[in-house]
Protein 1
Amino acid sequence: MSPPYAATRRQVLAGALGVLAGVTVAGCDLGGRPGGPKAPVHAVDPYATGPFAAAGKGLLLQVIAHPDDDLFFMNPQCHQLLSAGVPVVTVVVTAGEAGGRNRVPHQLAPVVTDKPGYSGARQQGMRQAYAEMLGLDRFTPWQRTVLALSHGARAETDELAAGDRRARLVFLNIAMRGAGGVRLPALWDTPGTVMRTVEATDSPDSLAYTYDHRTLVDVLAGLMAAFRPTVVHTMDPDPDYQAHDARHPRGNDQPRFSDHRDHTPTALFTWKALSQWVAECDRRDGHAPRFTTMAFRGYYNQRWPYNLPPAVLARKARYIAAYGGAPGWECHDYAGCGDYSQGGTHALTSRKGWARSTHPRYPGPLPVSATDRAGRTVAYGVLGTQAVRWRETVPGSARFGTPRNLGGGPLAPVLSAVVDAAARHLLFGLRFAALDGQGRADTREIVVLEQREPDGPFGPWRRLGTPDAGAERGRRVGCPVAVATPDHRVHLFARTAAQDLATRVREASGRWGPWHHLGGGQVQDGLTVVLDTTGRIHVYAAGHDAVHHWSQARPGGPVTVRPPVGGRAPAGAPAAVLEPDGHIALIYRTQAAATPYAYGPSADLAGTPLPHFTGYAPVTAQLATEPGGGKAVPVLLGLDDDGQAQLQFGTAAAARPLTAPGPEATVGTPSLLTPRGRPLSVVGMSPDTTPWIWRPQTAPQA
């Protein structure tokens, strides 16, 4: 019996050409001619400040190493966008064939290896999972065709729609382990490396192709140009160092790091292709493509407290189970009905716990917000890997004008913004200073952009380096977080390669001092900085067992490590809010908890649960006046189970959250703005890269 997608070779190729013609962008097609000369790789110019392309409809592009990486590490965000009607294109770089044995739990592994068969079974598993995410029967037939790519390569592409929701899968099928044991890291780092594809069983594309470094960059950049994503999901290009021992066995980790050996080069190729795509569009069209990026950690998830509550985890595990399938399923695919080792309850029972967390590689608000001297809301973010500023057209209008390109790219997606004592805005970002591969430079650096005067022009970007010497250790730097103090200093903090804290200070004269390591033990990225009533700095971060704390003993003094604070171990970055009595309260969720707790020195905040503010991801909190001119209370901002922004005034038992209006999903984590004497604002990012402002006018009733 023929499988449901069967077609003649002529029909398949004709369909592929039609699909490609429908998605190619005029003037920005990086495909190249099959077998023709390879154009030079271009990279984002950090000094480029040209305009951005006009806003269009949202589309999510994900680039992953193996079938299932998106399900384990990028969900629930992928499902939330898909459910909101955002089309999703997922590009799978490797064939995922591994050892070629599709293992059924609690049974002996197959004796005969079948790499094409295992690859095909895993791809069928992806089709099952995405069909369920679209709300369809898991065995719904897909339209399966062949897509022409750069340099003569082709790839199977599968498409399925349910009303206004649409998913497309693109399988590049590069072997996980090539001839002579060559793997994807060599394709990134070793000049001259060539790898072949695996012909997945029952694929409409039965030919094999070769990839070198340049070909993969061009293919990914060409797919970006063709599909024009507004949101890009990548993997972690710079995973944490990891000591593998009895407590932390290596498992599937690559040596010395907490992630798979294929995840890292896949992320690096993706970031390099993004930079090339932006540079080419700038050069040819005179404007940069308009997209934002989120990167996700991988095996890191098993090393830290889990951060997904039961309801969110159950939904995520359902789609992983659909991907895993079972030998007895009637999927009508000759290769198999999924990756059997991941079927059933495996995602919930595995000791590795990969499904139990979702960690952004670059945590922080997207975008970050501030106000100018006229009272307009200003939002800073990263578009097209370049820093961008949006400014409210009129104070209180809740409408942003055209984004202004501030350059600095290629940048990681999250910025830190502060207003110094002279009312000048400073932006801090993490730049991919070099993404060469092939044995050449691969470096990161923290950079800063400062206004010359309040509401005035910005000066040039300045390099601040990283806390750790050497390119390899420097790549492990966390997102910069800064705070301005009343003595006209600016203190910059960043997580180090050793997973503790380092700082660098800009003096009142404007001169930056050297990096200083503060120690303090291992913490997760996502630092929280707050000033107390005396102007002293306090820094908080989530450790393995407690909230780690650094502070000044006196205003203007050095920041040093303090004893851990709070109650139980946090699942993510804690919120720190200055209470009306001058004390600092911490608010955070513990492992796998939906309900956050508030911890503070006052009795009513000593481990107080906030039972109605359920959801996932870190909580943000600031002190603000209740709507209607009431008293000052802590205001909480977070995400509910569906990823929608929610806000709550106060921590009293009667307090109830408000959910942001509108059905559209939020990209990343929104920011909270509580300017003195002005209405509270929540600023977030839509999937079409248009920022929005939400100003709740009334507090919810009990």
Note: Residues 9-34+57-356 form a domain with the Rossmann fold fold (CATH 3.40.50.10320).
Protein 2
Amino acid sequence: MGEASQATQTQTQTQNSQTEWSQTAAPIIPTIWGRLYCTNNSFQGKRCWKPNNPEYYDLIQPEFSLGRALKCTLVMKKDVVTEDIVKNISKQHFIIKRDMTEALSPAVITDLSYNGTFLNGHKIGKGNSRVLDDKDEISLTLPTVKIFIFKDLLRNEQDQVPDEVSQQYYISRTLGQGACGLVKLVYHKTKCTKHAMKIIKKSRMTNGIINNLNAPGNIQNEINIMTALRHPCIISTEEVIDSPQAVYIIIELMQGGELFDRITSRGRLSEQLTRFLFRQMVLAVKYLHSQGITHRDLKPENVLLESADDETLVKITDFGLSKFVGEDSFMKTMCGTPLYLAPEVLRANGRGYGPEVDVWSLGVIFFVCLSGYLPFSADYTEMSLRDQIVTGRYRYSPPHWCDISLQAKQLMKKMLTVHAERRITLDGILNHPWMQDINVIIGVQKLLIQTNQARNISQQTLSSTGTDDDNDSNSSNVTVTKLSRAKRGLSSNTSCSLEPEPKKLKGANYPSYGKLDDSCSTNSLNSC
């Protein structure tokens, strides 16, 4: 028994030893995000680098520093570079940093020297930073003393954009993609600031032939309009770069995400929060209309938030987008999912409608904010999506509306009025009783004043209250389409064709809908 026990113990030790060996033998592969290749450049007839110097230095850690100080990653001594160069190098000459916690973030070089760090022959300046790009040349003390060529080993898409874009911006990860374009995170190479870049293709293939959607003159006109817009609640267009294949729109980056995501994460928004955010949306659209611009694509995905706070600044984006992609193309991309389009847009197939379409879209956003579901959807099979909108029959679910105030329901109906001439105006919305909360008005005004663009805000944001009354429709318990389901179908749902007009379902009454143009008693609004 003793020998057997000893044998068993020996076997166990051998297995443990093998396990330990297998655990410690696995090599740790470093993540090399960049390389600094030493150049063959000479200074005053002498090679800058000493013969025993390595061909390159791998960049593994988030920071790489160079200088004469011993704490630097690469200590510049006489046995590394020539004496003439060493004597002009600062204790800390420059530092290169890369945020490894953010995907595809660029490397940034900061000049810490008095004698100068140069990037591609241009002096950075003490305390200033620049974004590093692949094959950038780094010089010390003089533009001619080129010691490094930077190699970016992380994937980027600099070669996928024209030179006029890549020379100014470092292209990072994709932020989003829609029917009208791709949105990328970009970094300004000189300012080291983050921006969003929308890429809109200008041509499409028809029978193998490329058809341009816009004349250069028309595009330039729209560029001038977009860059001239100045309002705290309108996304700032920093720059528009026009190329033969696409338009690249550089806009400010909003850290708070989309209104869509804010609603879906909470289910729905309170009346107070909706009032705070919605007031800003109305002011933004009013400004656009004053500039002769109809948005035509208002939806929660195009309403961006500055921060994660409740009382945050709202900014409208993608205004006038159809001008860039062409009227016909815009309507074709929208026709599959007109969840937020006004009835007159669907009836006219993109022609013969006015700025009132934006009020309807605001009404749908308002509905979604308060209830958390869509008023119109192809999932409501009693009627086609097109017929729901053009007849104004929205899906009303009493459990979702029973704790919503009567004034909010009245305002919703006034915005979702089928006939444009009877629809409430933007001033009417601002003056509606539901909007007259002094704390919200002052809070919004303070927020706008705190921005650099608040000079154009009208004093009418503190306008007096109105006394409009209206009614809603009778309704019953129904199933509703959640917002998350609808967004998943935005790019693929084509159930609502604009032409030919879908056949109407049989039956004159749709008890699960409220008909917006039909008057009904106040009690029906407040029955829940």
Note: Residues 2-25 form the longest helix (24 residues).
Protein 3
Amino acid sequence: MGENATVSAKRTRANAGGLKIERVWTTEGVHPYDEITWERRDVVMTNWRDGSINFEQRGVEFPDFWSVNATNIVTTKYFRGAVDTPEREWSLKQLVDRVAKTYRAAGEKYGYFATPADAELFEHELVWMLVHQVFSFNSPVWFNVGTASPQQVSACFILSVDDSVDSIMDWYKEEGLIFKGGSGSGVNLSRIRASRELLSSGGTASGPVSFMRGADASAGTIKSGGATRRAAKMVILDVDHPDIEEFIATKAREEDKIRALRDAGFDMDLGGRDIVSVQYQNANNSVRVSDEFMTSVEEGKSFDLLGRLDGRVIDTVDAKGLFRKLAEAAWACADPGIQYDDTINDWHTCSETGRITASNPCSEYLHLDDTSCNLASLNLLKFLGTDGSFDVARFSKSVEFVITAMDISISFADFPTQKITENTRAYRQLGIGYANLGALLMASGLPYDSEGGRQLSAAITALMTGVAYRRSAELAGVVGAYDGYARNATPHQRVMRKHAAAAEALQPQGPVATLVAKEAQKQWKAGNALGEKQGWRNSQASVLAPTGTIGFMMDCDTTGVEPDLALVKFKKLVGGGSMQIVNQTVPRALRNLGYQEEQVEAITEFIGEHGHVVDAPGLKPEHYAVFDCAMGERSIAPMGHVLMMAAVQPFISGAISKTVNMPESATVEEVEQMYFDGWRLGLKALAIYRDNCKVGQPLSVSKKDKEPAAAVAPVAAPVVEKVIEYRPVRKRLPKKRPGQTVSFTVGEAEGYLTASSYPDDGLGEVFLKLGKQGSTLAGVMDAFSIAVSVALQYGVPLQTYVEKFMNMKFEPAGMTDDPDIRLSNSVMDYIFRRLALDFLPYEQRAELGVFTASERAARLRAEEEGTEYVPQAATAAPSDVVPAAPVRVGSSTEVLESITGKASDAPLCYTCGTKMRPAGSCYVCEGCGSTSGCS
């Protein structure tokens, strides 16, 4: 392979003259920074638990059109240097220059540009696109490039493990190094012999599932001490492995254990102290299925499980029964996902080198073992004109710039192991992708779940990958084809023809999709003709990644291939504070659909109040589908997500990071059907999540002690019981009683709560007044207050009221100005939570899951230190309480929950505590940019 690669490189370099760079975004004679109005901002991040400041950097410099959210995330995540030192970066200019200048210098060093002027123009175009949020590199680039740290640029890794203890120990070590550096990895364990096979010593093998325990414990430890809080890893097993049934059941069995421990009183919530006692929780699991297996399931045939040592049949199972177990486990706990092996390898450009056996944690990077992939994503909304047109020319040129930069980075990048270094440099895998697809479709007036929406998405994806491979062929003529190309020329060309044929088969609807599809077909034809002459620089060009943190950096409304999360979102304001707004994509879509400005304002106002478009004034019912979202009143059906994945998959080198959410009412049969549909539609991988299928949900569940079992008494003679009738006696409050008044805001409603207590403690009276209320509502509030007060005086426990009224949902609802109760489902929900905090002892509140901000902070510290939290002996009297400053926290997911009255399964951010939102097959925090998986 090495000799042929050298000959190929020499042949292509014979005609090399370097790239001539064309001006696209910049203005001749004007530096990109000089076209922008820059402003200074203060970034102050507060701790959601107690309001303390956990990050502060004042006077940072950003363009005036960057949001507060993007500013905060870039400042806290990507600026290098210790805070309050001269080395600390303070301007976006410094960050972008650090990266862009490194790329330019490496491009000049390795012969990418024809002249120094071309190199300078390349740098300026790159700078312009980055500061205007046209695209972004993946997070490791921003972390490491241009710093004294190793120049790690890849976010995705695939490892390998063989059937030996040495190889397994290497796997543990390599995985740990990758986690420490803030990236994720995946591995296929199918080479490890089954637990029913013999060792050379004569004993029985442990099997791959047993070795997963050690790797899971390692990941759980390193995630706390490394650069990221959570490790991201994928574990895969082939469906013909003799231990496949044990592998399928691992996480579902652990979920049963979690339920049993929870019912026994252990803290098994997400991040709970006792959740660490269960296994396999740090990895995504996937089963690699073959066409043979799926056909056997379809036809009701048996299927052989093969030994790893000699390939002999260890067991024969009913294929349909095994597939049923796979679906039951996924239904129960969302794991394992499924990967379609034959489809994956049918689109493999380097099959002569080896098969694709594994993926990264989010399943979008699929290639050879011991390789890595660096990612970059384009902001699709930047190419949509106000008239609904798509700027094909600028999009194509932007893809050229990004692919060139990504390939340059491989030349100077550092990698965690020697094997990964050699293989990545030999095959040069890239992962260009995009974000804001859902926003683009909505702004274009196209439903996400529609043939028109899918065809436009497919055409854009085909154009992106077609241009990427055409530029890759041009790069091969300048700096040589990838080293492994000579050996893999035949399969690589075959896969390129498959992509081109898929582009030719597009059936676009409408003038925009037709224009994009025609250009895509043209690019594939030109790129393949050039590539067949001089090869390609890259064995892989594109993936669709989650685009979590970088999506917020680009101020994208939607991530990756996802639809919009919801029509309303939580927005931070420059001067501090926050507000709930309707996504700006909505009015743009309404104008594109032909609505007048007055109608746009009325519909937008309705959405702001209700969170959906149903019955919005003047909105035609046939346009409802344009505004369907991932969550909320009109959520997109699961099959709508799968069909979108199927539409774009033929135009992606790798695969798609996406989890298909299913309702809690979904059946095992529906999961089976979903996995079958994914296979038939040509997907490479698919994962599902059924709502509330996991115990460790973000919202705490009260853990009430079980009723003690009745003691078994010896049999005795029957006793005639004396019946005594008990009647409650009212205990009136004295004329002069201690009391407190609390002002509050829930959503847009303001009010006052007055609570009076007995001198010997205990709540005895409440009065509730809402601001701007009419006489009728005032009378109802007075009657309600009197009814509650009288009942309290007759002995009805306050805890009973709290249990009944807590979580009651109605408008007004939303964010509050109370630091202890950040979000409320209604005024009643807020009132009785506040009363619980002021008058109930800690033990009773713990059962209800009601804590003050300081208690939450103390409980968390105790958990982190491995100690037991001991509450203060007494609560300060109302007059002693010093009101804390309101904490500005929140997320779009929490806003959606408050509107719909339905809790999301998204986890809480480990860094800042706010509710995260879905991004591909992982989650991302809008507050600080932390992700639960790939960057």
Note: Residues 2-151+364-552 form one domain.
Protein 4
Amino acid sequence: MKALSQLRRSGPLDVRRVDVDGLLIGPQRDRLVDIAFDGRRIWSFWLMRDGEETDAGMLLTWPKPLRPFLDGVADLTLTDPEHGTVLFEETVRFGTSPERIDIVNPAGRPLAIDKSLKLVETFDTRDAAHVEPLLDAIEEVLGALDKVGVRPFLAYGTALGAIRDGGLIGHDSDADLGYVSDHDHPVDVIRESFRIQRALTDMGYRVTRYSAIALKVHVEESDGLDRGLDVFGGFMRDGKLYLMGEIAVPFQESWIYPLGTATLEGREFPVPADKDRFLTATYGPRWRTPDPAYKFTTPASTIELFNGWFRGMRTGRAGWHGYHKRTVDHSRSVSAVAREVAERHPDLATYVDIGCGRGTDVAWFADRGTAAVGLDFQPYAYEPEAERRADDPHVSFQLFNLLELRHVLAVSAWVARMPGPRAVGCVHVVERLGHRGRLNMLRAARMMVAGTSGTLHLQFLSEKGRDSYARRTGARKPLAPEVVLAEVAESGGRVLELVREHVSDDPESSQVCRMTIDWNQPHS
């Protein structure tokens, strides 16, 4: 947290340059700044913390999600958010367009940069008609959590807004809930979290998981919008409160329970009993001073504890989300693996695509009359195809996390009961996995083809060339075939065929490796 003397520093900023690269500002003490385009706040930053010191001054680089919008004209205003003092204002032009810059999503909804430097719909752009459904969703999920046996409350930014301001924080963009378990051992807290997930699922909610004790509960609003509310689990142990994913501090349970209340946008909601101690544990002793550029500075010891206890099952998820978002308009073609499987297994009854992405191979097999199952870590990728194929009896899509053993075993057992012969394809997935994830993939494939003559057909980047193949496929880095061969042997399988080939006629192009693997034949 910054000292009050820094928060209250007044006077204009010496803005020396504004262009598509960022803002160059003359020497200053650290200070909090709001930046607005045509009167609407777009981004907030701390000058020293978020800037880069150069010989010419402090350079504030535009956040990456904002850069595609920087082509046109805008009235740029820099403001002290505590006092509303204007520090700089000027009409600026970026790029060559004569049009006004309009930072909105495809539906025309205003966007701004949040604390994670993502471009989102923040609460200060939403009117009452958009806030009421959120409040309804908060009430609904709090009630559902109460029914499944925990005592939930508003947490993090939602609690801060209710307790400090009586409303949603304008620069925030989501709703956070929490609970403190009656258990005091991480294993028991994890077991309880999965029980909560099963109970919520039985109640009809769609639930996705951040970690072993943090969930997102999805509520469909009246206009069809999918609203996701974050639910952070916590527990008390040896006089400390552990609340996923930032808090590990000395605490007393009586400071949480019995719960108190606070008003959020005119509605009463549960909050921890000692509001000051809870928000001090979350945001520090100066939590009453608004900071639209606030960033958690979680101690390394807390991160290490939470990583060891609860995290690890979402590694790489954000990267795949970014890849699928970046390539949403790219043309898609059926993989060589899918064509090879179809050719070699003309009697195939079920094809399983591990890491199906947008489901192109799944749809291709279904159109040929073969049952096809698409499994992926990132539902964002396959959801459009799943909606299009909702009435197709040949198609199934399923969330599948190779870093979560429960997924590996349960989903693989489900597939193993499907009609045979079965074959499994896995295209450009293993490059992004570690040793544990690759062994889980091999275990899953072995279970899926068990009892049939089916095989696993694997393709991965084995050599990165002077082309864009790695970026186009999301493979990133090559994986040595020798590593995979050793892991196949470790899994009890054997490689029936191994082919390495360039992806184009250019001898300096990338090289892929394809393997056909089975677990059914005796080893010599």
Note: The longest strand covers residues 226-237.
